[in-house]
Amino acid sequence: MIAWHMIPFVPIAFAVLALLAWRWDARERRAYEATLSEAEKRQLRALRRVHPAKWRAVVALKQAETLATAAQDAAPRPRKKRRKSTAQQAESGRKTPA
User: Fold this and answer.
1) What are phi and psi of 52, to 5 degrees?
2) Tens of pLDDT along 33-84?
3) Alpha helices, DSSP H only, in the chain?
């Protein structure tokens, strides 16, 4: 018989979530580094070893810049002209009772 009250579920769940977050972060980092030149990759890897907090800040800033420029590069859509519905046309065409 298993003594379920003896199994620490909260620390186990926390460890599983930490592993999933670490894998997701590693996958995102590899995808981001794939867009960089070799010199930029070397620079970021050196910074990651020397000062991890500063590296995270640099990566976050570069990703934000990339998203901002991508949003600006997207061509704005032309505005659609709205036609009046038949009910609105009928109301505007009616004469007011005298």
Assistant:
1) -60, -40
2) 888 899 988 988 898 899 989 988 888 888 888 778 877 776 566 677 777 6
3) 9-33, 38-50, 52-73, 86-93
What does the alpha-carbon distance between residue 58 and residue 64 come to, in Å, rounded to a whole number?
10
93 vs 17, residue with greater confidence: 17
Contact 17, 24 (CB under 8 A): no
DSSP label of 34: T
Instruction: Count CA atoms closer than 13 A to 40's CA, side-chain side.
Output: 9
Phi-psi domain of 3 (left: phi exceeds 0; alpha: psi -120 through 50; beta: other): beta
- Measured CA to CA, the distance from residue 51 to residue 59 in angstroms comes to 12
Specify the long-range contacts of residues 21-28, CB closer than 8 Å, at least 24 apart: none
Cβ atoms 62, 37 nearer than 8 A: no
